[in-house]
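Weekend entry, working from home. Most of the wet-lab plans are on hold until the incubator is repaired, so I used the time to fold the two sequences that have been sitting in the queue since the last round of cloning. Logging both here for the record. First:
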Amino acid sequence: MENRRKNLKNILWLFLDKFLRLGGNLIFVVWLARYLQPELFGAWSYALAIVTIFSAFAPLGLDVIVVRELVKKQLPASKILGTAIILRIVFAVVLMLILLLTLHLLNIDLDIVFNLCLIWSFMFIFQSFDVFDYFFQAINDLKQVTFARFFGFIFVFVVKLYALVFQYSILFFGVLHLLEFVATALFFLIFYQKHPKKEKIKTFTFKKSVADTLLKDGLFFMLSNVSMLIHLRIDQIMLKNFVDESVLGYYSAGVKISEALFHIPHVVAIVFFPKVIEARQISQEKYLQNIQTLYSALIWFSIFMLSGILFFADFIVMNSFGQRYAPTVVILQIYIFTNLFANTSYITNRYLALENKTFVTLYKAVLAVGINITLNLWLIPNYGAKGAAFASVISYAFVGFLGDLLFVRNMAFLQIKSIPKIASLLK
C-alpha cells in the first residue's frame, strides 16, 4: 500500500511538471514567433532542429542503464554516478566539436543559425547533470526531479517574458534557452546535495570496467533515441534547405501546436500504465485487455483533438501566431494527423519495453526515418511545407500502425479491435 501511494505521488508530480512546463513553453513559443516573424522564427527553428538531433547522442543511452545499475546495487553508487557524469561531460565536449565541424562542412552561412547552434552546443555539457536525475529515479523520488526542472524553467521563463516585452535580440533569447539548462543543472546539484540518501560528490570515481558496461549496454538506447529525434526533426532541416526560412517558420508554428497537444495523452498514459504492468502479473488476458483499453482511450482522444483542429485551426493560428502565419492553418490541419499514430506508437513502445523487445522500436524508427527522408525528397520540392506535413503523416502512420503489422502484429490487431470500443463510446 505504501509503495502504491508513493507511485501515485510520483505520477502526480510528473503530471504537474508536464503541464506546467508544456503550457509555459507554448506561451513563450507563440509570443516569440509573433515577435520574430516567420523568417527569423524559421531560422530559430532550423538551428533548434540541428542541435536537437545532436543532443540525442549526448546521453549516450545511459538514462535507462544508470538507473538499472543503481537499482541493482551491485556496485557503489559513487562509482556508477562518477563514471556516468565523466563520460557525459567528456562526450559533450567532443559532441560540441563535431557539431561545429558539421556546420562548417554543411556551409551554414546564415550567421544567426551558426551563432544559435554555437550557443546551444554548450547545453550538452549542462545536460550531463541529468545524472542526478537518474539517481532520483532509482530511489523513486520524482518530486526532486520535478522541482529541479520546474525551478530551472520558471526562473528563465520570467526573464524570457521580460525580454519579449522589451524586444531583445534573437541571440539574447538563444542565451536564455541555454540558461534554462544551466539553471536546471544547478538545481539538480542543489537538490542532490541536500538529499539524505546521496553519495558525497567528492567520493565520485571513474572506473573503466563500469564505463565499458554503461557504454556497451547504452549503445542500443542511444541509437534508438537518435533515430526517433531524426524522424522528429529532419523534415524541418530539409524544408529549410529546399525552400527558405519563412516557409520553415510557418511549418514550425504548426508543429509546435501539434506537439503541445501530443504530450497531453502521453501524460494520461503515464498515469494509467502502472495498471497495465499490474495486469501483466495477473494474467495475459487482462494484460492485453488493459492495453486495448489504453489504445481506445488515446485513439478516442486523438479523434476528438483532430476534429477540433480541423474545424478551429484558423481561429487558433490567427489568434495565437497572428495574420502573418496564415499559411500555418493548412499545415496544422495536415500535420495534426501525426498525433493519432504517435499516440498508438507510444503505447506499443511501452509494451515492447515491458516485453524486452525494444530492438523492434529501433527497427521501426530507422525505417520511419528512411520513409520520411525519401518522401520529403519528392514532396517538398513539389508541395513545400504541405508536402513535408504529408511526409510526416505517412511516416508516423508506419511507426504507429503499419510497422506494427510487420513487427508486432498482436498490437496492430488490438488497435483494430479498439475501434468498436470507440464506436460504442461515441454512441
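Second, folded right after the first finished:
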Amino acid sequence: MAAKKSTSSILRAGWLISLLLLLSPLSGAASMQLQKSQSDDHLHFHYQWQQNGQLTQFAFSIPQQSMQQQLPGFRRYSAKLADTYRRQALMQKAAELPSVQVQLLPGRTGIDYQLKARDQAEAEQSRRQLDEAMQLAHQHYLEQIYHTEWQLKPRRQVIMVDHQRIMQQSMPDLMPIAMSLQQKFPYTTTRELSQFLLDWIQRIPYQQLTDRAASGGEGFSPPLRVIQQHQGDCDSKAVLMAALLKLLVPDVRLAIIYLPNHAVLAIGMQANDDDLQLELEGQNYVLADPTGPALQPVGLLSSRYRMYLQPGVVNYRLL
C-alpha cells in the first residue's frame, strides 16, 4: 500500500500527460514541434522550430482553471435563437400595452406583427416601443455571446464576433504567455516582438473558413482555445497576437483589418521603407498577417489583398 501511495503522489506532482505533435511541412511553412504536458493544475506548452537555421524554443504554462472558464458565454450566433428572444420581448412589451392588440404574422422572414390601436398616434408610439424592446433583446443576446452588429463598406450590415471585447477580456488569461515573452525578450522593440509572434503563430495550423463576415462566429476561436486546440483561423490568430502585444506594449495602436474572407492585424509602429502600410484615422499602421501557413514577415501581405486597402474603402476596427 505504501508503494502505491508513493507512485500516486509522484504522478500527481509530475507530468500526467505528454503529447508530441510533429506538424508536417506545409506550403511556405516550416514544421514546428509542440510538446503538451499536464500537471495537477496547469497545462504546459513547449514549442520549438527552426528559424534561420537556428533552433527557437518557447514555453509557458496555463492554469487549467483558465482553460475551463475561458469566455463561457461565447458561442456561434443563431438567427433562430435571436428571433426567439426578440419574439419574447415583443409579447412581454405588448402585455404592458393593454389598449393595443398585437398579433404575430407567421410564415415571414424574421419577425413581423400586426398592431391595432385606438388611433394612429397610439399605434405609432406603440410600434416604436415594441421595436425598441425587440432591438434591446437582440442587443442583449449579442452581448451574451460576444458578438456585435457592424457596418461594413459598402453599406453591408453584418453580425460578427466582437473581436475588440474578446481581446480585452482574454488578456488576463494570457498573462502567463506574456510573462514568458517578457523573460525571453527583456529588452526589445515592437517590431522584434511582432516578428517573433508572427514566427510562432503562423506555424500554428490554419483552420479554414469561407465567409468571415457571414459566419456568425463559426470557426472563430478565442485566444486560449487557439492555444489549447493548436489551430485557428485568420481572425482568431489576429486577436491572439493583438492581445499579447497589448499586454507587453500597452500603448501600442492596433486594428483588425477585414478583407474578403480574411482578416489581418495593423500595428502602429515605426515603419521600414518596404513595409506595407495603411493610414487609419490619421495614424499610420504596418500590416502583419499571422494566419500562416506562409511565413510572411511584418510589413508583408499577399498581393491579392492589396486592392482592398484603399483609404475610405478598407473595413477595420480599432482594438
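Plan for Monday: verify the second prediction. Confidence is low (pLDDT under 50) at residues 1-29, 210-216.
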